[in-house]
Here is the input.
Amino acid sequence: MSDAGKPIIAVTGLKKHYPVRKGLLRRTVGQVFAVDGVSFSIGEGETLGLVGESGCGKSTVARAVMRLIEPTDGTITLEGQDITHLGKAELRPFRRQMQMIFQDPFSSLNPRMTAGDIVREPLLVHGVARGRAAEERTAALFEQVGLRPAQMRSFPHQFSGGQRQRVSIARAIALDPRLIIGDEPVSALDVSIQAQVINLLMDLQRQKRLSYLFIAHDLAVVEHISHRVAVMYLGKIVEYTDKTSLFLNPLHPYTEALLSAVPVPDPRLKRRRRVLEGDVPSPMKPPPGCAFHTRCPYAEARCRVEAPVLQEAAPGHFVSCHLHVAA
Amino acid sequence: MDTHDPMPPVLDVAGLRTMFFTRQGLLRAVDDVSFSVARGEVLAVVGESGCGKSITALSIMRLVPSPPGRIVGGSVTLDGRDLLKLDEAQMRGVRGNEMSMIFQEPMTSLNPVLTVGSQISEAIRLHQDLSRAAAADKAVEMLRRVKIPEPAQRAREFPHQLSGGMRQRAMIAMALACNPKVLIADEPTTALDVTIQAQILELILRLQQDLGTAVILITHDLGVVAETAQRVIVMYAGRKIEEADVGALFAEPLHPYTHGLLASVPRLAIMSGQVQAAQERLQEIPGMVPPLTNLPTGCAFAPRCRFADAQCRAAFPPYTQPRRGHWVACWHSERLYGAGA
Here is the structure.
């Protein structure tokens, strides 16, 4: 999938550290290593799933890629153009190319604007269409996401959760972007509605050759929608490969544990559970060596001192683990 | 109503009806719901938001906010005693003692200004005649049972000093401190990460087996249901629409809603051993749950159901038992009979 020409988005060595300030003088006493050296790329019409537990840095990655926060280090390249350090005005044409959908459509839609105005706004801001043309375009967008054009006059609170997410999607595709970043876009939805929204996202991808960065914690959803998957743990990607390899042959012990922890909706399957002990360590004080060694059932002496790097263990299958890479 | 279970029920809920009297109108949150739970059994209640599963739990605990809510009918019998007939003081003796409840977000159910240990010992001293010191010791012992490391130290800490998983463990310790007959768990792992969820579910199941507690597990996650429950109730728009053993429900659901729900969940490859190569569409249930203030007459699922006809729109179907222990409220359940999931 990714071999089709140059990637839409390429991220290299992305870091975001937040200072921790304490005391009267707000002196910096430490750093939160929210994202600590993340690299990936997404091709045209491709979906990269980004999974990990809360606090692993997946949302920070999304915000940094969108240039909503300034990365500490690394580069972000959109269609061959380095956008990491562009100023506000220079960034504007590129903003059209990237759009974001959030988990909770209620807090990301202005409650005082009608759904029609919400979807129309990007058209006006970017001078794509105005007046009658904008009106017609908005109506067409409503139809594309499965809403009735008559609903353009309704306010966000008059929609159900699934419909609100459709409004967010209509807004996101209004400017014909190349990349859509979804930060847990279906997590807040009920099962039967979740399926509708996932199908809509996949249909739009096929029609428009959209690229998705799809952030989620639900592995079954990620498997369904993604072509490739990156697994994050404490600010780093620990495994990165196509979805078939990841789900059928996970190499990193953390991926393995994540998959084994997912409750499977089939009572006939009594799987051997590998329940991980303990909690995720604080990103302020990541453990030395491999960050996962405190919970890893296979940890050896080496894992406690030496941090593994992401290496290709099998063709196209990258893993950051001492067990899987020849010394 | 279900008699195939050899164990006598600890808790029997019959014809429970809870309504909310709001400005938007009468809201039938729970409408004629009946079920029972036996000692040592895990009963799952599943459904989507607004289906009435949480209000069912709150009704059993007599914690429905009133006004606007009110239990208007039915009975909740715990060991032969109808809880709906108790006065508030008697009910306080039941809650946290014979019957406990844990919630989705432990941070909002723990008091932020009291230490974890003092909250647990308070719950113990409310129901048992123990000295302060003895109750404090028991609190530490309970924290140890729920596998909190360094329990004596943790008992002196405040809720915000604990991680989400630890807080839920502390809630479970508090809920089980008086060895209740029934534990109601309302989405106990929904706010937790998947590896922590696995820890908490394992803990609940182990304690439940050790203590013989009956558990009512309320969840929207069909995976959690499949892995923990023995019996399942499916709710839709305030009604129970299906009840079956977990194996039968997943293998051969008889209600079109259950059928659609099971088909719309994306499944992990590790189940079938292969990833589908092309991106397939998920099966959808069209439309959405009707608002409880404006339920259609007849079967509430009819507007979304592919089998719906005039009969469905006219009257809510009676409960039938097409298979032993498998109850369903659908005029057309025979259409799914033998169809599988």
